Structures are given as C-alpha cells and as structure tokens.
Amino acid sequence: MARRSKVSRFFVRILILGALAGVAFLGVAAFRAGPAPQIVMEADLPGIGKNTPVHVTFTEIKRGLSNLRVELIQGDRVEVLEERSYEPLQPWELWGERVKQDALHLVVGSETVKDLREGEATIRATADHAGAWLRRPDPAVDELLLKVQLRPPALQVLSTHTYVSQGGSEAVVYSVGKTAVRDGVMAGGWWFPGYPMAGGDGQQRFALFSAPWDNSDPAAIKLVASDDVGNQSVVSFVDRFNPTPVKTDTIRVSDEFMSRVVPAIMSQLPGLEDRGNLLDNYLMINGELREQNSQTINELAAGSLPEFFWSRPFMQMRNAQVMSDFADRRTYLYNGQPVDEQVHLGFDLASTQRAEIPAANDGIVVLARFFGIYGNAVIIDHGYGLMSLYGHLSTVSVEEGQQVERGQTVGRTGVSGLAGGDHLHFTILLQGLPVNPREWWDAHWIHDRLKLKLESTLPFE
Predict the structure, then answer these.
(1) Which tens digits make up the pLDDT trace of 233-247?
(2) Each residue of 17-43: b (16+ CB within 10 Å) or e?
C-alpha cells in the first residue's frame, strides 16, 4: 500500500511538472516577442535628385529579422521601394537558423520613382518584431527627411569665338545658377575646374581648358555644372576645332644607352623593383615609372593656387633649337625590334651643354628634385592649374616653395633621367595634362584667346 502511494505521488509530480512546462510553453509562445530591430539609414547625397543611393541596415541578433519595408513618403503618397520577409526563430526556440542582419541598397530619384515632385520627401524604414501568439509589438521605424531637387543648375556660355586645337588650350567664360557646387569643362577624361571672374558675384565663372592631345572628337568637350544631388547641366561651346595630325618617331635603344641611364635612375629611386636584366628595367622605367611621374604631376596640379602669378607671355629657352614635336608617338627599337611605345609630351630644346634655363614665367616652385624619367627637374606653378616643367637638368638652382620671376635661372641643361644627350625637356601642364607650349610662348595668342575673354581677371600686359 505504501509503495502504491509513493508511485502515485511520483506520477502526480510528473503531471504537475508537465502542466507547469505546458503553461510555461504556452506563456512563451503567447508573449515572447523578439526585441526591437535596430535600423541604420543613410543617404550618399544631401538630397534626392536623379539617382540618390540610400543604404538601410536592419539588425536583430536574438530571434532574427522578420518583415522589412522601405517606403518613400511625399504628401499623401506612400510608395513601397522594397520589401523583404524572413522566418525568425519561434518564441520557444533559443537557437537555430535565422537572418540576423540585412542591408538594403536602394537608388531613389526621378529615374527610379515615377512622378516624384520637388520639395521634400521622407524615406521610412520599418522592421517588424519577431512576434508571439498574443503579442505583436509595434514595428521599429526610422525616417530620413531629404530635399527633392530635380532641376539642374542654370548654365549659360557668355564668351564667344572658342577656337581650340587638338593638344592646345583655350578659355571659356560662363554663368551658373546658385545651386551649382561643381562646374568646369570636361574634355574626354580630363576635368578643368571653373573659377570666379574678378569682381563678380560668384555666378560668373571662367575655365582654362585643353583639347587633350589624344582626343580628336570636339563633341567630347563639354561645359558642365552639377548640384549637390547629382543633377547636371551640359552645354557644347566649342566653335572651331582643329585636329592635329599624328606624328611618329623612332627611338633606337642601345645597351650602351641603357647601361648609362638605368642604373643611375634606379640608384636615385631605391624603391624600384629590379626586374633582373637591363632591358626589362628600362621598359619598367619608360612605362611604369613614367605613369607614376604623371600621377605625381596630377597631384601637384590639384594643389595649384587660384591666382594668376604671371602677366607676360611665357619665355622660350634662349638660342634653343626645338628637337622634337609635341605629342610624338614614339616607337622604341632594341636590336631592330619594337619593344615599347610612348608619347613624348613636350619639347626637347637643345642649346650648348649645361646652358642656363630660364623660368618661363612668374610662379612658385612646387617640385625641385630628382623626378623619375625627367631626372633632375623643376615644376613651377603659375596659378589656376597652369604649370611648367623642366626636365633632364644637370643642376637645380631653386627650391620648392620658392617664388621665381620670369627669366630667373632655375637650373642648367643636362643628361639626367632618360635623356639621350644634353638638352631641356620642357612642357606646359594644364591641370596635369601636357599641352602644346607654342601657344603660351605667343603673346598674340594669349591676348586673343585669353585676355579678351577674361578681361581684368587676367592681368596680362
């Protein structure tokens, strides 16, 4: 009898525990909702234009994400931009497969949302809690209020008679609307920024630009103004374009020449990788190092000061003979076979050995050191992205940061770098792009092409 009583009490306990477990299970299933998902939302631009990237990240690491939604709200209009649904853990599950985080990358703008209006719009992100049978908390919500700006900035060309030659330079004067934050000339892949005209209200602007030496299509030269949400006005403005015939040249590379220039350059630049033989090292210098030098020039151009330091035509080196054309396409031959091709973007000027080199115009020295393929070199900033480069010097007579005057000696000619003989490699750079120096040596060209347009902004005598 006592044994049956003990067995009965055991089963009663089991039933009680089972009942309590059932009650606990029902309680969890009925009321254990997941925590509020975290929402982080940001836009790449300060407003909505044609295409504004918007990024929304949802996170809930306990039970996982459930229903996600991103909407655009403008007035009474609510448009769903994207929805996603996932299966979270059940209220009674403590582990298992679930989506803890998701990121939605949307493009919102007039090209993706029909009938979008100017003014303001709200991007609203909503994430449901992982719910329970009897408990459905309000969803987590985050909102981002953005201006909607669909009209591009006003843009009007003011100057006339824009005549430009391939590889040459020019100027354009124009006006932009107040919403413009970036304006200038796009020519192929080159950007020439605009600057305010002297004495104006900031809306009247000018840009010095070039028709790049490797671009024979005038349609690729456009005046551009953009606002802060990516709307863009584009205007054609070139009245006459003069293409330049392609000029070619052949350079014979000898072991004697390479034995002289390659070790000298590599000793000055110990970071260069030794390719194992003279020819491969030479090709690396003529190609990869040349490209690195161009990148440094572009970086210097980005720091050019917005000021005209000069007021007279640019000087050519005295009693110097021009030994090459601008933008020669050079084929390099070794043992009679072509091994490389490069473009010679400047003039080789030869005079007597170690001849004095004058600064082409007033400016500030931004580079005065050994400079890759150019050997000992000097670069002078003349303002507004205009620079002059002097290469292959035997000696350098100026220092970086020094202000120099037109005609002041900056160094002497030599054979440093990739020079085959004593001479000066000279070029003019506009925003880092080599341009034909002949124009800048010509007082009439500067007067007709620049001064008449820029008026008092350019203090040209």
Answers:
(1) 999 999 999 999 989
(2) eeeeeeeeeeeeeeebbbeebebebeb
